[in-house]
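Late entry, evening session. Most of the bench is empty. Finally got around to the prediction I had been postponing all week. Sequence below, unchanged from the version circulated by S.P.
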Amino acid sequence: MLLVSACADPDAPTRDVFDPFEAENRRVHEFNRGFDRALLRPVARGYAAAVPDDIETVVVRFAENLSLPADVVNNVLQLDMRAAFRDAARFVVNTTVGLGGFFDPASEMGMAAPSNTDFGATLHVMGAAEGAYVELPLLGPSTVRDTFGTFFDLFTNPLSYVVGSPTNLVGTGAGVASGLSRRDRYSGTIDQLLYESADSYASVRSIYLQNRRFKLGGTGGATYMDPYDMDPYEGALAAPLADDPHEEPHDE
């Protein structure tokens, strides 16, 4: 959700949207907005204010490194052996030379960036249809295919079978902290999307599908003109707010 809303191109065309659960999705969206306003946003601010930037960067690197084995597994399932080898090599270098992933010597050595794939992408490669758009409580925008993928992602990381409890909770904590860092880093754009859009649900839906389809290589098809997507701030979604990004959001 954070990266999608921060990196989206709002002017890109979106293919037809299949949203038969829109009424329920909108209720979940309002719950997610309330959760972000009441808890996630202020906690992210507090975390960013309390933790030095260098430490935040180290935690993000550590969490990213822990996710690489799952990327390797999904790349193998997608028969993308080149990406699997690149991710495996990055994991080995950063885990050894980079002291468990706290440092990123792989990037300094010019190694390729992580593939950042998932089981939803694996299902796409296997031919599974995208299915209906859904918004999940706390997890945000998704599709039926990606929802199944999110469930199976819980089992695709080999580290979860190697590292026992309670040590494996370190990775979970790092992932949560990394998410808080990203929520604060992209606060201006996310606040604008969630609290200043004419219809934040339609904007989130459109942006998620645009980015997901682009990542999966499925950008072709007819242009979809969303009747709800009448956002006067649309042209600024990909740029930081001109005002203070930490100014309290307001509802329309």
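Two things to note before I forget:
Residues 2-65+130-236 form one domain.
The longest helix spans residues 22-50.
Will write this up properly tomorrow.
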